[in-house]
Amino acid sequence: xxxxxxxxxxxxxxxxxxxxxxxxxxxxxxxxxxxxxxxxxxxxxxxxxxxxxxxxxxxxxxxxxxxxxxxxxxxxxxxxxxxxxxxxxxxxxxxxxxxxxxxxxxxxxxxxxxxxxxxxxxxxxxxxxxxxxxxxxxxxxxxxxxxxxxxxxxxxxxxxxxxxxxxxxxxxxxxxxxxxxxxxxxxxxxxxxxxxxxxxxxxxxxxxxxxxxxxxxxxxxxxxxxxxxxxx
Length: 232
Hints:
Layout: E1 3-8, E2 14-19, H1 24-30, H2 35-42, H3 46-62, E3 72-73, E4 79-80, E5 87-93, E6 96-102, E7 106-112, H4 121-124, H5 127-133, H6 139-160, H7 167-170, E8 171-174, E9 186-190, E10 195-204, E11 208-215
Antiparallel strand pairs: 1-2, 2-6, 3-4, 5-6, 7-11, 8-9, 9-10, 10-11
């Protein structure tokens, strides 16, 4: 299972992404699975089951303190680490899976490019965001930009970890049309009692995009602070 990406930053945020090449049998034989984990994944569709086993295999391998598992969830269904205070976020799409851990509130998402994204743009982007990101693009580039926008909003949603968020209304992408190399440097989440701001980091790959949204804790209610440290 080749590792494609391993990045860390100066805030002890770590991100790993792999390409899944193995089959379900490999993962089942790779370790002694907690009984409850085996029971959970039995109800999944084979594709979903493979993603589940691959992601858990990697988490147990690289976060050994979490054995024997299973991973905990809070009242909103967000995964929690059993040992330690770091935050955890996982994602998988197609033949790719990954996770991020950090001392700060964050969410990560990865998505393979899929033309279906063009059918649902209006469900998660407002009209201004669509104009700035999608208008005038040819089909393939529109798919890439739509996937980028979805990943950004999904990662912010994962970072916040609470249900009932309206993507097109409460999560705003701050778009720099004149800086294509860093098109979405941050995003904001509007809540009844506060506004959260998240630094956005992402990378386009040939078949997918990965994105990480990290809370700027000192940026609540105010202007975004200086850019977060570069990946090491």
